Structures are given as C-alpha cells and as structure tokens.
Amino acid sequence: GEDVEQSLFLSVREGDSSVINCTYTDSSSTYLYWYKQEPGAGLQLLTYIFSNMDMKQDQRLTVLLNKKDKHLSLRIADTQTGDSAIYFCAEKRGFQKLVFGTGTRLLVSP
Amino acid sequence: DTGVSQDPRHKITKRGQNVTFRCDPISEHNRLYWYRQTLGQGPEFLTYFQNEAQLEKSRLLSDRFSAERPKGSFSTLEIQRTEQGDSAMYLCASSFGRLEKLFFGSGTQLSVL
Q1: What's the confidence (pLDDT) of residue A1?
Q2: Would the CB atoms of B106 and A98 count as touching at under 8 Å?
Q3: In chain A, at which end, N or C, are there fewer CB atoms within 10 A of the end residue's CB?
C-alpha cells in the first residue's frame, strides 16, 4: 500500500527512553525524516537520515534505519515532559514530495 | 521572525462559500508546499511550487481547489463552493536545496458549517 504506518500512542515516564516506530513504503526513498507537532502548531523538523545510513545520533535523538524491512525508529533518551507531542515520520517520494505517517502521540508523565 | 507565516489562523465559513488562504514562505526558499491535515491524521500532500511554477498536484485537489504563487513569493490557496469535508488544517511549508527540509507554518484551521 501507499501508507506510512506508525503506532498511535506511546506513554512513558519522565527520564525513560522513548522509541517510536515507523514502517515506510518506498524502498527508493532517499531521505527519511522525523517531525514533531505540538498542539495548535505546525510541524517542526527534528532530524533526518539519508537512506544509505543505518544510524544517526543527534543529542538525545537516535534514528535507526532498517532498509531491508523499511523500518525507521526514533529513540529519545531521557524523555522530558516537554517532549510530549505527536511525532510523524516522513519519506521523500519522487523528486520533492514528502509523505507523512499517521503520527504517534507521545505522552510523558512526571 | 523569518519563519513561514499563514493567514488567517482560523476561518469559519458556511457551506458553499469561497475561501482563500495566504502563505508567506521563508524568503530565500524556492519551493512551497500545501498540505492538508485532518484530526488524528498526518499531513496529506496537496500541491507544490518551485518558484512560480506549480509542478505537482495531488488527486486530493479537486477542481474546486486552486493554488497560485505569483512571482515565486507568497502563495494563495482558494477553495470554491466549500463543503463540510473541506474542514481541516491547511498547512504551508517551504524549503530549498536537495535535502528537502520542510519548514512549516502554523496552519489555517478551516471549519465549514
């Protein structure tokens, strides 16, 4: 199918690690992205990974890419209450278009 | 602030009316995108411009929708004869370069009564 799939909801305690998973569809996608959306706001780019990489670390964020399974994950270390938001993965299809997943709502409790 | 700005933030209209939204991208960005987001869903691609040229339109964009980007700067999205199913958040984004890092505006929330 054409859908980029994500689990709907994740709940963690402050200080724990969060892992958000995504399954994308186009094996020829060159870049994959993670965006964050807070209530009433647009989307904010968190990080991205090029398709020839299998891991990228950026401060508290770690992106893992399994091209064979078309699986992407975002790990947030030492999760804070301010990390509570909806997280979207996206794949770049064709020349320019980004296709987004359905979003994972992360709830961080104190 | 030099981010992407959208106007208005909220629009309430009656079914059958026409509405127009505006997006001002980041000034040095040559690509501009419109996305639509409904509750509980990710953004869905509608259309994109490279400079003033509209290069791709989604099948979601019916004949009632039209987008323009005169002079390759700001863009407008018009919806004619609005229907209740048009109620959504309309997001604009801009980018430049090969990496395709999209910068989003805060969106226009449309409610069709």
Answers
A1: 42
A2: no
A3: N
**Which residues of A, range 70-89, sit inside 8 Å of B by Cβ?**
88
CA distance B23 to B9: 11
Whether residue A41 is predicted with pLDDT greater than 70 in this model: the reply is yes
Residue B60's pLDDT is 80
Question: B102 at the A interface (CB within 8 A)?
Answer: yes
The predicted structure's pLDDT at residue B1: 53
Residue contact A44–B104, C-beta within 8 A: yes
The first and second tokens of residue B40, run together, are 């509980």
Per DSSP, the residues of B23-87 read: EE--TT--EEEEEEE-TTS--EEEEEEETTEEEEE-TT--TTEEEE-GGGS-EEEEESS--GGG-
Query: Looking at the partner chain, which of B40, B41, B102 has a beta carbon nearest the beta carbon of A98?
Result: B102
CA-to-CA distance for B40 and B27, rounded, in angstroms? 31
Look at residue A2 in the predicted model and tell me its pLDDT. 61
pLDDT of residue A37: 94
| Residue in A88, A97, A100 closest to B48 by CB | A97
DSSP code of residue A38: -
Contacts for A40 with CB less than 8 Å, ≥ 6 apart: B106
Indicate the average pLDDT of chain B: 92
Q: Give, in order, the Cα–Cα distances in Å from A98 to each of A26, A92, A93, B59, B62.
A: 11, 4, 6, 15, 20
